[in-house]
């Protein structure tokens, strides 16, 4: 659905040639990856649209990668998928700001968000931008606000709620395809061009890993440039760097023309002309006919003859020549001849990953500085390879390498390749068994041997390399010995031995590593640290995580005065020495899950610079009083220290504390001194099973913005909580004994989110309406369950109205919550009639009142103009639905057994899901024939109205329907019974598959179990290929009836669902029951399948005069449900008088309702708590289904 925004977006500028990317997708991965974004990306690719999608978004840091900025600049259009958490990512906002600067086509998709919220940064974006301003300042955030405002004002697409969003995806695809014709850079109305391009692509064989050179030769005007441009447009997405030079003559006519041509070419291929050609991956040269030499060798010679032509281009041309000489012999293997490099005297950098070199290696340029040969296929480097100037040797991921140099060990020493080597990277050379004698190498600074699993020991010469700064032996899991003499490693700064799971000891003279700053020993079996380690006076980071053999530290470890970070997570350490207090520069101390550490020494008081102290999961039973001296501590985490029962009173001295994490501790109460934590922003106390109260002093923590208390036995909150004027999030979920909220809660002017699900709160204070910033109120209860004050924390009792007749009312001020956009009040036992001022909750988008006892809804409900979801399942006394707001996208009134009347739904043009399962008294659903956006329609168990509704169903309502459930025993006779065979049709693409099943549920299946089932289980569709299953999926048969009557379910799967997209000629689609059944008593009585091809369901006009063989699929289904004499239009078949009669009755009822309210409180809700047998609760084993 498009928005009603009136702002326009810039059209995509038409480049000379097609850009690398047609579309850049900007999205928040956690919201849409795997759903809308993946579907859109798949459809775009299927249509040949080159879409850029960043798959690394979850692992990014704060600074946006250059490659993303390049992709944005090299994209012709942008699709920005704005979702609820979009503004929670700085990356997304940076992308959006950059997109807005590019002045090209922007297609916004508003995914589960309101465009007005995007424009004004309201709704879910309000808090995100506040957090961003706190982190980055208003100046940086202002450009993101402008970008959001601009995009929110564009005409875009709103995606909300149910289904596969296929329509929006198709519309987006159509828009992009329409724009593509403007971006090609090729003359309009070309004839026969596509077939020529395809012929050339076959010659190029893009699936091959080999190199290709293509020349186009012919007289002027025959279309060489046009063909070259069209071919370039086809190939551009395959290359990270590329060049298209459309008129070489222009460059050659200039002074120093050939030089300018070279600069242009190298600049395109490398990104910067001055940086050479490290990134060359492909190029296209379009030679104008009058300068294209008849002798192609002479043409290439003209380029090669210039000695200043960059090394990369020279290499590329030479490798072309040499490759084609050997292509016939080894067609699929990339082989280069070393002789190709003999003349490249200026070659300094060579990157030949996964390439095989043949010939004499002595021909390699002597001045080569950098060789990156990842995936080298050799077992050893040949002894005649001797580039004396080599500084960097990268052979990482070369799994065949066993030794670096062939022959004897002196081969390395005799040739002088090692004299100037500064970096050697052998990461992932898993078969490397030894490294050579490095004693002659006094320039080596960095040696990486990570994941060299074949290494058992290191050559002793490594201890003599004075120049070495970085040594990485991580994950060398078979390394058992480190050189005992390391006296030469005086300049070593980083030593990484993490993952060397057989390494038992460090060299005794480790003290010679006097420059060492990082020592990482995670996962080793070192039993003790040598005393000499104490002389590493420059050591800043020591990590001993998961050292299961290390039980003690040197008693004088405090001498490592430069330490900033110390980590012992999951180690066997038994004691923290008192000398810890001497580590005066320590900033981070982590003792997480150290199961043998029971106490923290008092000497920690001296760690004045400590900012982070983590002890999660340790058996510490108390914190020393001296911890209050850590005035710079910002993060104290003792979560799941289950023996910790109290905090010291000295905690008030933590003047810089920001985060205090106490999850899963045995703390019974907090000290009054906690009020001294003036800078604390986040206090977390989940699963504190003994926490019974909070102190009044908590009101003094003026900076607190997040308070999380989950599953604690508290009975009330202190009145002082109203003083937390900066509190944004209050989470009280599962505090089952919490019976009341303090009256002061109305003072929380900044509160946005209040979660109090599964509490015993029965009344909201009158001040509740003062929470003018409240946006989300989630206070659902467990169905049929209450917890009386007299019961203990583990006791439960199911209550009923006969035992508890207390009336529960919501405050009259409740309607003042004008910013509230989500209200979940399930199972509050709201009774009688809901007051008529509900329309004052003008921001409400999601309203969940399921499992309540009211009998009617107010007519003012229609005034909630942006309400998207109305959820009323299991409202068993609800008798009528009033006129509903046109903004609704989902209505769920399943299991409303007393529901008899529904107002005309014809105005709900955006409604996508309508669930009326088991509304057994319902006699009609007026307006259902007009629901053109409907994708899910569930009326299982609605036997009273099924025949009437079937006559109403029209092609309009069925056109977009994905799932339908309705009483019935038949499947259309034009469906293939049980099995359908797919056969390709010439020039027609399969668009969808419809599967129909008739199912019944045995009366032995209890109603309690039916309530817990989200859908009828155990029926699946399979694709069989040569009688073997290649794909299977469980049918989504939403709507579990409470009867044993037959029910018809229709499921339509669109073209991108695997049940459609995986089909190949001759495949069978079969519907079966799962064996063994998931639930006993489910019976599959009939099944049928129909395949929908292109044009089968594409006609939107009136079809009443068409013969059956001309009708669309939707029309056929409508006629199947309609009268046997044909015609499914309800205008002639439904009694208008009956409809008017129903509507008149409803209007009179609502008039009486309004009249009865005049003398009473307008905003009162009556709530009852009912009692049932405890055994009934045990039978349910409560499985809570949301909505």
TrEMBL record:
Residues 1123-1158 are annotated as: Disordered. Keywords: Leucine-rich repeat, Membrane, Repeat, Transmembrane, Transmembrane helix. Pfam families: LRR_1, LRR_14, NB-ARC, TIR. This is TIR domain-containing protein. Residues 19-184 form the TIR domain. The chain crosses the membrane at residues 1164-1184. Gene3D superfamilies: P-loop containing nucleotide triphosphate hydrolases, Ribonuclease Inhibitor, Toll/interleukin-1 receptor homology (TIR) domain. InterPro entries: Leu-rich_rpt, Leu-rich_rpt_typical-subtyp, LRR-SigEffector_domain, LRR_dom_sf, LRR_R13L4/SHOC2-like, NB-ARC, P-loop_NTPase, TIR_dom. Residues 1136-1158 have a biased composition (Basic and acidic residues).
């Amino acid at each position: 659905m498009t928005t009603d925004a009136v702002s326009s977006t810039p059209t995509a500028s038409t480049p000379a040639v097609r850009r690398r990317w047609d579309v850049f997708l900007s999205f928040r991965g956690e919201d849409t990856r795997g759903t809308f974004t993946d579907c859109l990306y798949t459809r775009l690719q299927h249509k040949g649209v080159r879409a850029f999608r960043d798959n690394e978004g979850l692992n990014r840091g704060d600074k946006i990668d250059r490659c993303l900025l390049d992709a944005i600049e090299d994209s012709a259009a942008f699709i920005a998928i704005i979702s609820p958490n979009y503004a929670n990512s700085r990356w997304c906002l940076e992308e959006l700001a950059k997109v807005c600067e590019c002045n090209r086509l922007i297609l916004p998709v508003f995914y589960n968000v309101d465009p007005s919220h995007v424009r004004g940064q309201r709704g879910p974006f309000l808090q995100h931008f506040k957090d961003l301003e706190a982190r980055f300042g208003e100046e940086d955030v202002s450009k993101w606000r402008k970008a959001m405002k601009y995009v929110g004002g564009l005409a875009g697409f709103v995606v909300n709620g149910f289904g596969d969003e296929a329509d929006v995806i198709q519309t987006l695809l159509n828009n992009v395809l329409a724009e593509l014709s403007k971006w090609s850079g090729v003359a309009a109305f070309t004839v026969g061009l596509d077939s020529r391009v395809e012929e050339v692509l076959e010659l190029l064989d893009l699936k091959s890993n080999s190199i290709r050179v293509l020349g186009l030769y012919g007289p002027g005007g025959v279309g060489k440039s046009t063909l070259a441009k069209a071919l370039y447009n086809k190939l551009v997405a395959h290359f990270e760097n590329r060049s298209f030079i459309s008129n070489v003559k222009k460059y050659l006519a200039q002074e120093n023309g050939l030089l300018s041509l070279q600069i242009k070419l190298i600049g395109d291929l490398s990104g910067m002309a001055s940086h050479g050609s490290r990134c060359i991956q492909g190029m296209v040269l379009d030679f104008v006919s009058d300068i294209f030499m008849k002798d192609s060798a002479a043409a290439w010679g003209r380029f090669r003859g210039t000695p200043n032509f960059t090394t990369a281009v020279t290499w590329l041309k030479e490798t072309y020549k040499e490759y084609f000489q050997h292509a016939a012999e080894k067609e699929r293997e990339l082989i280069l001849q070393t002789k190709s490099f003999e003349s490249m005297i200026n070659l300094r950098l060579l990157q030949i990953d996964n390439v095989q070199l043949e010939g004499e290696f002595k021909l390699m340029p002597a001045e080569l500085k950098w060789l990156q040969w990842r995936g080298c296929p050799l077992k050893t480097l040949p002894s005649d390879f001797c580039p004396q100037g080599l500084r960097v040797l990268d052979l990482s991921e070369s799994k065949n390498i066993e030794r670096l140099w062939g022959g004897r060990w002196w081969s390395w020493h005799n040739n002088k390749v090692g004299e100037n080597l500064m970096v050697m990277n052998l990461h992932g050379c898993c078969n490397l068994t030894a490294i050579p004698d490095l004693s002659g190498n006094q320039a080596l600074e960095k040696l990486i041997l990570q994941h060299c699993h074949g290494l058992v020991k290191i050559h002793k010469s490594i201890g003599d390399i004075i120049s070495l700064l970085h040594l990485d032996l991580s994950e060398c899991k078979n390394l058992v010995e480190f050189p005992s003499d390391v006296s030469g490693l005086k300049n070593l700064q980083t030593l990484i031995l993490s993952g060397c799971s057989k390494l038992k000891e460090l060299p005794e003279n480790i003290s010679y590593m006097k420059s060492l700053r990082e020592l990482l020993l995670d996962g080793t079996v070192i039993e003790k640290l040598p005393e000499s380690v104490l002389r590493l006076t420059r050591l800043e980071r020591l990590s001993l995580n998961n050292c299961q053999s290390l039980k003690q530290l040197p008693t004088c470890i405090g001498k490592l005065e430069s330490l900033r970070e110390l980590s012992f997570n999951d180690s066997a350490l038994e004691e923290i020495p008192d000398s810890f207090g001497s580590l005066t520069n320590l900033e981070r101390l982590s003792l997480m899950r150290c199961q043998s550490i029971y106490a923290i020494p008092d000497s920690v008081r001296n760690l004045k610079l400590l900012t982070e102290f983590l002890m999660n999961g340790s058996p510490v039973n108390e914190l020393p009083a001296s911890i209050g001296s850590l005035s710079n501590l910002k993060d104290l985490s003792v979560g799941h220290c289950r023996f910790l029962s109290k905090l010291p009173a000295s905690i008030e001295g933590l003047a810089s504390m920001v985060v205090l994490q106490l999850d899963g501790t045995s703390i019974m109460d907090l000290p009054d001194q906690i009020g001294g934590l003036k800078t604390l922003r986040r206090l977390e106390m989940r699963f504190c099973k003994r926490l019974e109260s909070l102190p009044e002093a908590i009101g003094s923590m003026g900076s607190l913005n997040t308070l999380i208390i989950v599953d604690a036995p508290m009975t009330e909150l202190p009145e002082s909580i109203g003083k937390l004027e900066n509190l944004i999030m209050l989470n009280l979920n599962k505090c089952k004994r919490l019976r009341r909220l303090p009256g002061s809660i109305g003072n929380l002017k900044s509160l946005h989110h209040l979660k109090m699900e599964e509490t015993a709160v029965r009344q909201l204070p009158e001040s509740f309406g003062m929470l003018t910033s409240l946006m989300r109120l989630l206070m659902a209860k467990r169905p049929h369950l209450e917890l009386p004050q007299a019961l203990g924390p583990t006791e439960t009792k199911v209550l009923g109205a006969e035992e508890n007749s207390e009336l529960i009312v919501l405050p009259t001020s409740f309607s003042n919550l004008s910013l509230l956009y989500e209200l979940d009040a399930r199972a509050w036992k709201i009774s009688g009639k809901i007051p008529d001022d509900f329309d004052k909750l003008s921001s409400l988008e999601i309203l969940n009142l399921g499992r309540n006892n009211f009998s009617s809804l107010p007519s003012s409900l229609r005034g909630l103009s942006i309400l998207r979801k109305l959820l009323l399942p299991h409202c068993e006394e609800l008798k009528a639905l009033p006129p509903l707001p046109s903004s609704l996208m989902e209505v769920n009134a399943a299991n409303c057994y007393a529901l008899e009347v529904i107002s005309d739904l014809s105005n709900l043009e955006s409604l996508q899901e309508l669930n009326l399962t088991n509304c057994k008294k319902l006699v009609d659903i007026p307006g259902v024939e007009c629901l053109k956006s409907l994708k899910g329609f569930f009326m299982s168990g609605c036997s009273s109205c099924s025949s009437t509704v079937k006559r109403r169903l029209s092609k309009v309502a069925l056109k977009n329907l994905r799932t339908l459930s309705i009483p019935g025993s038949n499947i259309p006779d034009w469906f293939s019974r049980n099995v359908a065979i797919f056969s390709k049709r010439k020039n027609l693409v399969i668009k969808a598959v419809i599967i129909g099943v008739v199912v019944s549920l045995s009366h032995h299946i209890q109603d309690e179990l039916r309530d817990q089932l989200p859908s009828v289980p155990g029926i699946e569709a399979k694709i069989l290929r040569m009688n073997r299953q290649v794909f299977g999926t469980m049918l989504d048969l939403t709507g579990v009836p409470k009867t044993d009557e037959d029910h018809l379910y229709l499921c339509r799967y669109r073209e991108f669902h695997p049940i459609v997209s995986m089909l190949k000629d001759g495949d069978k689609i079969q519907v079966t029951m799962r064996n063994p059944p998931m639930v006993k008593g489910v019976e599959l009585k009939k099944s049928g399948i129909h395949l929908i091809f292109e044009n089968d369901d594409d006609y939107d006009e009136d079809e009443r005069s068409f013969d059956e063989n001309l009708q669309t699929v939707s029309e056929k289904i409508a006629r199947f449900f309609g009268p046997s004499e044909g015609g499914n239009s309800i205008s002639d078949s439904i009694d208008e008088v009956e409809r008017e009669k129903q509507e008149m009755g409803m209007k009179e009822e609502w008039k009486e309702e309004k009249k009865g309210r005049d003398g009473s409180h307008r905003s009162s809700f009556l709530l009852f708590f009912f009692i049932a047998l405890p055994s009934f609760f045990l039978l349910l084993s409560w499985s809570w289904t949301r909505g």
